Amino acid sequence: MERIPYWNIGYGLLIDLLSLPALAVFGYGIYGHWKRIRQGKASVKLGLTLDALKLGPLHIRSFLTRGIVGTRIYRKLCTGIAHGLLFWGMVLLSAGTILVFANVLFRLPVFKGEFNHWFMGAALDAAGVAALAGVVYLLIRRLFPPERLTCFRANSGFIQVEIGIIAIVVTGFFIEGARIAQNGADPGSFVGNWLGSMLSVGRGGLELHRYLWWTHGLLALATIAYIPFSPLVHLVLAPANAGLDVPVPGPKMGVIDFESFEGDGDETPSLGASKLADFSRKNLLDASTCLKCGRCHEVCPAAQTGKKLSPKGVMVTLAEYLQHGRMDDESLLEAISTDAIYSCTTCAACMEACPVSVNQPNAILQMRQHLLMERSEMPEIMGQANRSLEARHHPFIGTGFGPNDWRKGIDVPFYEKGTTEYLLWIGCSVAYEERTQSIARAMVAILKHAGVSFGILEENRCTGDPAKQMGNEFLFTEIAGQNIEEFNDLGVTKVITMCPHCFNSFTRHYPLLGAKFDVVPHAVLLRGLIEAGKITLTNSGQAICYHDPCYLGRHNQVLSEPRSVVSSVGQLVEMPRHGCESFCCGAGGGNYWTEEEGTRINQTRAKEALDTGAKTIATACPFCMLMLTDGLKKFTEEQMVKDIAELVCSRMESGAQGVPQTLVST
Ligand code: SF4
Ligand code: SF4
């Protein structure tokens, strides 16, 4: 017999009418979130764009992949599969319910033929089983949670909604079984037919069916109404947060327009963020979307080595202040703590792990900006590095080297306007530490050998990036402005970097200050030279473990090029955490200049590299080199860390000219 909607249910249409107040409560709840979020600064500019992957401020690709499909959820396989079964199961079941409404209201023939058999029967029963399996797994995991779910705060609200979903799916199956017990088997409904064969017929069966039907319908409506007041609100907020997120990892700090502050009336705006009202709407959306899943806590190098910082803790604190309307409460910084704020290495591991696209370091860095620029509060050594940057254009306190010492004994050309193709950017990190100077020397040798037209600046200074990461936006703007002016005077259009922090700053921050030049990290250039046959290398066949610098790999997705270079000179081996899921060396965010407490991040990473059994640890960042070299001292006296430029230089077939082999040999 063809299925009849609302069979055995008097006044069944009431459920359709009751959906209206449920949807109204849902809308009211979402409006409540918007009301809270809109108290933040409107950093998002509305407007049309010609970019096919953008709709106004919305990034379509991240909206669809991270927001709707939830691609990051699957990085934890079991949880991901359970979440996928639940989500897509419920999507199908909701589609089935909508089709039933369409049948009632518009006589859509959904209960006929093959569609009834395969979709309304088999597919919906399979969806119910999948959703049930997923939600039961998730509930068990909530009841026996891993540490990441409970640290700082557990999101206990999930337990109620998971029990509610189980009740909805189970009552749905029993309604189907009770109906089939009375009316005979449905084609394709394998669960309903099985339950129907066990349920009683007659008056008791009819009453059971009616009772279950109302329970199921009212529970479903109550759940819809409850979504905005429960952790399920991530169904709405997570896609929005993913769509409004920057498509590439990293805090993406923007620049502060200091000139706009001048002559701006009586009140000078406060720099950085000391209270919720100072944050952008996106920051407040981040806090509202956070699920307290702790995935960020689990990958954070600071949290994992016992520092006060936990990105989950930061988001939980922001969310609680927001929930309680404490927009102007300046106790926020104390609640999070200065130590925590300065412990962030800006590695972006938290962002990469977050399933709902929260940008934790962006919020942390804004608080850091306030501490530094408004209160002059920062760890002592960072303060010294800042003062060194101001006075001497580099942050390497206590160095005995001058800006040109790295090129003593070798002939390095200067950049000539209109003649030289590439500016080889030296910056500070390969100039002021003895161990990293050989990176610059190796690059000079390689570029000469390959016949690349290049030159350096006569006067060497930092990009200003350490100042930006430490929160000193004012100093960064000043240094960057000087560099851009010099580049413009010289007509620089192509720049080679050896430090990923310089590369990141040149490509992400300098353009906001008017810079217009192309930048190539040395890993990419080296790979290109090898592929073009400009340099020929001998492969030692030795195992070389590659450490991804956060600002090259995770932040800028330069992953395959350095690996290709390493594979040209040896046999690449990977650490368990590599690529976009790599573990920081501990230097980022200005933490190279800090007195680290507790377990050292660089020692943790050095041990991981050592455990691969490789005799050489390759990297493509001077800071990573310094940190790993230092971290290894706890375990071995061997000098194992090499930059990829050093490796290439030592394996060039016709030999490197002008480079002391003691510094570059493998
Ligand atoms: S950016 Fe890195 S150090 Fe900072 S909170 Fe995130 S994971 Fe932790
Ligand atoms: S910020 Fe993201 S990863 Fe961290 S607890 Fe919240 S939802 Fe989880």
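^ iron/sulfur cluster complex. Strands lie at 54-55, 58-59, 422-424, 454-455, 494-497, 518-521, 543-546, 571-573, 616-619, 641-643. Residues 299-302, 309, 311, 344-350, 360-361, 364 surround iron/sulfur cluster (ligand 1) (CB under 6 Å).
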